[in-house]
Amino acid sequence: MRIVLLISMFMLVVPAAWAVESAKPVVQVAFMKFPGHAEPDQDGQPVGRTVSLVRRLLEQAGYPYELRILPAARVFVGLQDGAVHLWPGLLNKPDLAPYTLETERDLTQVRINLYHRPGTPAPVWPDSLQGSSLILITNYTYTDRLRRIMDDPGLNITIHRSASHQGAISMLLLGRADYLLEYRSQVEPLLSDFALDELPHIAVDNQPMRLVLSRQTQFAEQLRKDLDRAYDELKAQGVELDPTRL
């Protein structure tokens, strides 16, 4: 009788242990503030097109999650020390490479433009940068190709920085620099603030946006596999997964 009781108790305990062991970890997700894609609502909760996409992918993959909007510097430090598990963005900071890995699926292509003031001639890339002044966004990253051009001593570019996208546009319009190098999706939502339908520009590069994962967790590789699988499953169902089209 005692043996039967012990077996029964074991059968009750083991499934519970399996359930605990198989429970997926809570994914700590960070977003950078991005109009229309990731911004706080009236309660301070992240909302936007990219936020909705990341929620959908994590739910399809079966992971619980917590969402935050953080400054760029805190996102990068969090990826390095493991406080941030996942960030949807452009991984083009070489010093982050040892600490991170990316999903294989591209979420979208992000275009980078060179903007100039209305009424000035369209620049020739990269020749027009010779001896010019250029506005960049503080803590924002650009592609390797663009960095090589900006670092070329032969071009003698003077770099100015702005802590905000709106401030960068203001600097350009006020003539404090010749050009602004900026992501199209950051500029377009702000044009109405300046009573502009368009800010003249030329396209200079594209960069894929992916899910960037911190290697400083025990589950980074599995999370990447699960997210890629979730992407494929949703794609097969006909779900739109490009956040610029949601």
Helix content: 25-40%
What's the main sheet like?
7 strands, mixed
Radius of gyration: 23 Å
Q: Would you state the CATH class of the largest domain?
A: Alpha Beta
CATH architecture of the largest domain: 3-Layer(aba) Sandwich
Which ranges are low-confidence, i.e. pLDDT below 50, for 5 or more consecutive residues? 9-21
Offer a quick outline of the entry.
The chain is of the alpha/beta class and 246 residues long.
Report on this model:
The protein has 246 residues and is of the alpha/beta class. The chain has two domains: 25-108 and 209-236, Periplasmic binding protein-like II (D-Maltodextrin-Binding Protein, domain 2, 3-Layer(aba) Sandwich), CATH 3.40.190.10; 109-207, 3-Layer(aba) Sandwich (D-Maltodextrin-Binding Protein, domain 2), CATH 3.40.190.10. It contains seven helices and eleven strands. Strands 5, 6, 7, 8, 9, 10 and 11 form a seven-stranded mixed sheet that branches. Helix 4 links the parallel strand 8 (133-137) and strand 9. Helix 2 packs across helix 7. The radius of gyration is 23 Å and the shape is globular. The N and C termini lie far apart (62 Å). Residues 9-21 have low confidence and may be disordered.
